[in-house]
Every structure is written in structure tokens, then in C-alpha cells.
Specification:
390 residues, alpha+beta, Fumarylacetoacetate hydrolase, domain 2, 11-stranded mixed β-sheet, 5-stranded mixed β-sheet, 18 strands
Length: 390
């Protein structure tokens, strides 16, 4: 990954929608909340100190449109300066479009990825065993559970049948049972954005990208917009034990969100998000190419149900949260040898795209090779205070 252009960033309808981002401003040594418009990138931090604050507005899209802001440059130049290699530290660059929100993720929300989780569990993290187990699992429960409503009488009947056959799994429990799996993906402010390196634990030998829709939710539980996400996953770690989920999911640079937040307005609504088609491309320096496709319309739990299971009287998020909705795409294409399936190699370029949301592009490195995460909540508060924005 040597270059990044506006074509690699914007939705197909350009700047027609309400697009929000974060940009690092070297002159103030801190981030700015920006509106991305047809005539440039505008700093609106004086009105909205954080993305979280913007999402708390009654109508975030309308509030952003009313904020004139200060133009800080052309989008093309800022995008081009985002890639770590060759970045000019004296010029602005893009960040992940999320700040104080808690980073949450829902798992096992698509039938295909649910089956792969069962396979991981039975393979104990060994990719060589996965193909034989995949055939047996499919024989037992089939490969199309997309019409099965989680928690329904039909789902509970299937659960009992599988228990009787000693084929039940904790992943099936959250996949077709009444309670969704929702976990904390990573610490607040740790996300990487488009153009940056995404991280894999250096001890992982079986891992994969997870292209997902990321919803932005206010502290009141209102869904206000969406972005693309890569919920980078270590299949070997989680396959050995579900108790290793935190190590499988939360590593330096393992949470990628971007390229921009698109707020809901007349051009993009929650119903549009429900029908979103997400594409995945992985291109390796070894010539390997993987293409995949995921449709949110095939999700087993409605996005509003997942949000309601995340926030409420038993759990509050004063700064709001973002929610990865899960992926239906678990890559199984053989890369090195028959039956070995897919795993990342160093310098893989992962592109996750949707016509309505643009492209999220990351180069894969081990987490210890990625840029260290040093700018946390305390640093953000100090930076905003020094600029007299809070």
C-alpha cells in the first residue's frame, strides 16, 4: 500500500450524503472533527469537540449541515498523507471516525459465520482439521439457517435435537438462542482508520478479516449512522477456547473503522443500512487474491434488536457506542495447501467496501509492527482543553 486516493475513500454518490471524519492536525498536536463536503474538509471541532458529541444531537445530520466550520484543506491531499509510509508528519491525515464511544461487537449473527465458529471450536484452533469437521457439521445441521429466527419455537426445537445428538455448541447458543453475543471489541480511541496498518497477534497462524457494518449509537440508544469495519479475528486463539476471545479480538490495531461516518439523512437511512451489500478483497504479495461478499439483509437478528440487547436499563453508555454487526463471510479458500484454508500473510491488503459507505483499506502487519497506540482519553481531554474547546 503506497497510495490512497479519494476514489479509495468516498461512497459512489460522492459527498451527497452527510459525511463525518476525524483528522489529525499537527499544528495543534490533536484531532479535529471534520465535515467532508464537496468543496473540501472543514474543521467543526469548535461546535462538536468529539464525534460522540455530534452523535448526541437530536438530528446529527442537520446539526452538522448547520455548522460552517473552518476549511483545513482538500480531501485528496489529506487522504494521500494518511498512509504511514511516506507520511509528512507536518501535514494533516485521516483517523478512524470514532472517539469516545465504546467499541462493541456482535458475534455469530449470520448462519454461515455461525457454522464456522462451531468448526473452529471442534477443530481446537487447528486449520488442518477444519475441512473434515466442516462436512460433518453441515451434515448434522445443514448450511442454510438464515430463515431460522433466534429464540423462536423452531430454533428451540432444533437446539433440543442437537443436544440429543451431542452436537450442541456454545456458538449455536448465541446464534439461534434468545440472547445475542455482544462483547467489547477494543478500548475506546484505539481504532485505526483507512490507509493505516491493521494488526494481528504475532503468535497467530490462523486468522481472517471480518468485513462488517458498524452502527453509531447515541447514549439514548438511537442509531444515527454507519461506517465499515474490520473485526480482525484470530481463529486459532478463539478455536482453542472461547475464553480467549479477548486475546483473539483485542490487540494493537485490530479494530479498523472507516473510512468515514455517514450520518442518516434523506440520502442514507437505517432501512438502506439493512440492505447494505459489503464486499471484501484480500490481495497478497504472493499473488493470492480472495474475494467475498456479505449482505446485511441475511442477518439473523435485526440491527435494532442487537442495539436493544446492548443498551438499556442494565447497561448504559454515556458517550454512546459503536456496534459491529457481525459478518457472514468466513474465508475458507485454500491459500498454501489443500485443506489448510485461509490465513493472512504479512502485507496483505484488505479492502472492505460498500457503495453507500466507500472503502476501508488496511495493510496487515503483526500488532507489534503497527504504529503504537499512545493517544488515549486523557490525551484527548488535555488537547481539547488546551485549545479551549471544552
Amino acid at each position: 500500500m503506497t497510495t490512497l486516493t479519494v476514489k479509495d475513500l468516498l461512497p459512489e454518490d460522492g459527498t451527497r450524503g452527510t459525511l463525518v471524519g476525524r483528522v489529525w492536525l499537527p499544528q495543534v498536536n490533536g484531532p479535529a472533527v471534520v465535515a467532508v463536503r464537496g468543496d473540501g474538509v472543514f474543521d467543526v471541532t469548535a461546535r462538536f469537540p468529539t464525534i460522540s458529541a455530534l452523535c448526541e444531537e437530536d438530528n446529527p445530520a442537520k446539526a452538522l449541515a448547520a455548522a460552517k466550520g473552518e476549511r483545513i484543506g482538500d480531501l485528496e491531499a489529506i487522504v494521500a498523507n494518511t498512509v504511514p509510509d511516506g507520511r509528512d508528519p507536518k501535514k494533516p491525515w485521516l483517523l478512524a471516525p470514532v472517539d469516545l464511544q465504546t467499541l462493541k461487537a456482535a458475534g455469530v449473527t449470520f448462519a454461515i459465520s455461525m457454522l464456522e465458529r462451531v468448526i473452529e471450536e471442534r477443530a481446537k484452533g487447528n486449520p488442518a482439521s477444519a475441512e473434515a469437521i466442516r462436512k460433518e457439521v453441515t451434515r448434522l445441521i445443514g448450511d442454510d439457517l438464515s430463515k431460522l429466527k433466534p429464540g423462536s419455537d423452531q430454533a428451540m426445537h432444533l437446539k433440543q435435537v442437537l443436544i440429543d445428538q451431542n452436537a450442541w455448541s456454545q456458538y449455536l447458543e448465541v446464534g439461534i438462542g434468545p440472547d445475542a453475543e455482544v462483547f467489547t471489541k477494543a478500548p475506546t480511541l484505539s481504532s485505526v482508520g483507512t490507509g493505516m496498518d491493521a494488526g494481528l497477534h504475532p503468535k497467530s497462524t490462523w486468522n481472517n478479516p471480518e468485513p462488517e457494518l458498524v452502527l453509531f449509537v447515541s447514549s439514548r440508544g438511537k442509531i444515527v449512522g454507519g461506517a465499515l469495519g474490520n473485526d480482525v479475528n484470530l481463529r486459532d486463539f478463539e478455536g482453542r477456547s472461547a475464553l480467549l476471545l479477548s486475546k483473539a479480538k483485542d490487540n494493537n490495531a485490530s479494530c479498523s473503522i472507516g473510512p468515514l461516518l455517514r450520518l442518516f439523512d434523506d440520502s442514507f437511512t437505517l432501512d438502506d443500512a439493512r440492505k447494505l451489500d459489503i464486499s471484501l478483497n484480500v490481495t497478497g504479495t504472493d499473488g493470492f487474491v480472495l474475494d467475498g461478499h456479505s449482505s446485511i439483509s441475511k442477518i439473523s437478528r435485526d440491527p435494532t434488536d442487537l442495539v436493544e440487547q446492548t443498551i438499556g436499563k442494565v447497561h448504559q453508555y454515556p458517550d454512546g457506542f459503536v456496534l459491529f454487526l457481525g459478518t457472514m463471510f468466513a474465508p475458507v479458500k485454500d491459500r498454501d495447501a489443500p485443506g489448510q484454508g485461509f490465513t493472512h500473510k504479512r502485507d496483505d491488503i484488505v479492502t472492505i467496501s460498500a457503495p453507500e459507505l466507500g472503502k476501508l483499506v488496511n495493510r496487515m502487519r503483526t500488532s507489534d509492527e503497527c504504529e503504537p497506540w499512545t493517544f488515549g482519553i486523557g490525551a484527548l481531554m488535555k488537547s481539547l482543553a488546551q485549545r479551549k474547546l471544552i
